[in-house]
Each structure stands twice: as structure tokens, then as C-alpha cells.
Task: inverse folding
């Protein structure tokens, strides 16, 4: 099957992960907020998105393309400060329709946040969030930033992408292409 890596990013760390995944899996990479991409051109998709203010940045694009994404194999890669767990699952659940999530394989990666690179607005919001956050580790990260970028962590995504690439397209799609 033919696939592609589609990403959204605010400060670049998700773009970096998307580039690594595209290179390792031999797939084209597109920034959905800068390029018009038609999901129908691909048999499977790897969607890579950061969590920004408890929501997935790629949510609007997914909502706009929902009918074209229905039933397609999707690897949903989140990039966040929070580690995998119920908090992250809840943010994913609040961002996307339940049927879409049920059809996708979610892989959670951890990103980067450098306070000096943030807009004044984001910096101020994160300082307020840090004051309010009862979790001391998360609070410290909101205030001082973090860097969990790890190229090795893309391995399960690349393995799954290679599995999808080796598969024949679904009969209906193969027919449509002839
Ligand atoms: C304004 C802002 C809000 C964020 N909100 C969250 C959040 O709600 N939950 C979380 O786990 N991480 C949050 N993060 C951390 C980002 O998910 C992390 O820094 C990610 O690597 C950013 O991706 P990007 O560099 O592609 O924009 C936030 C970061 C910023 C700058």
C-alpha cells in the first residue's frame, strides 16, 4: 500500500519527528497547515501531531477530512510533554471522534519545549498552567521546559508502516485505481 506522513507543528519538534519517520519508512511528508494534501491519494496515513493546550493540533484538519479518512489504516502519533497514560488518552478522546480513534493505532512520543522560543502569550499561559498544576513534575516542565526528543522512539511506527507498505491495497481501492 502507498502511504504518507502528514503532520502539524507549532514549534518544530513534531516536524522533526515527521521527517525522521518519513525518511526511515521511505514515505513522503506533508505539513497539513501549509500544503493541500488529499488523503484519497494514499492507502494509509501516519498523522503526527503535538498536544497544545490539551488538544491535538491536527484536529481541525482531521475533522475537515473525516469522510475521506474513514476506514483507512491510520497511525496516530501524538507528541506531547505528558507521558503516555490516561491524561493523554483523555486529551486524544476530547480532540477526535470516537470511531476515528477506534480505527487508528495511537503511538505516543514525547517532544520538546524551550521557554525562550515561545511566544509571550504561550509563555504566560504555561506559567499560569504551572502554578495551577497539582502534578509537580508536569508543573516544573511547564515552567522550565523539557527535551525528550528521541529518534529511537519512532521504531514501532516505522515497523507498522513497513507492515502496511507490504500489504496489497483493499480490493475497492485497487479497482478505483484501474
Ligand atoms: C503552548 C503550549 C501548550 C502545550 N500544551 C500541552 C498539553 O496540553 N499537554 C502536553 O502534554 N503537552 C503540551 N505542550 C507540550 C508540547 O506538546 C510539546 O512541546 C511538543 O513537542 C510541541 O510540538 P511542536 O514543537 O511540534 O509544536 C504544550 C506546549 C506548548 C508550547
Result:
Amino acid at each position: 500500500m502507498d502511504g504518507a506522513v502528514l503532520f502539524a507543528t507549532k514549534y518544530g519538534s513534531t516536524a522533526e519527528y515527521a521527517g525522521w519517520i518519513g525518511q526511515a519508512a521511505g514515505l513522503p511528508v506533508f505539513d497539513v497547515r501549509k500544503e493541500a494534501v488529499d488523503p484519497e491519494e494514499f492507502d494509509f496515513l501516519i498523522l503526527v501531531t503535538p498536544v497544545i493546550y490539551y488538544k491535538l493540533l491536527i484536529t481541525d484538519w482531521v475533522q475537515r477530512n473525516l469522510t475521506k479518512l474513514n476506514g483507512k489504516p491510520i497511525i496516530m502519533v501524538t507528541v506531547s510533554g505528558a507521558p503516555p497514560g490516561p491524561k493523554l488518552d483523555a486529551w486524544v478522546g476530547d480532540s477526535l471522534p470516537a470511531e476515528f480513534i477506534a480505527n487508528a493505532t495511537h503511538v505516543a512520543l514525547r517532544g520538546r519545549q524551550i521557554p525562550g522560543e515561545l511566544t509571550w502569550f504561550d509563555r504566560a499561559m504555561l506559567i499560569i498552567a504551572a502554578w495551577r498544576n497539582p502534578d509537580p513534575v508536569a508543573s516544573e516542565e511547564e515552567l522550565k521546559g523539557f527535551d525528550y526528543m528521541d529518534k529511537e522512539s519512532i521504531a514501532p511506527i516505522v515497523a507498522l508502516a513497513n507492515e502496511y507498505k507490504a500489504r496489497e491495497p483493499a480490493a475497492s481501492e485497487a479497482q478505483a485505481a484501474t
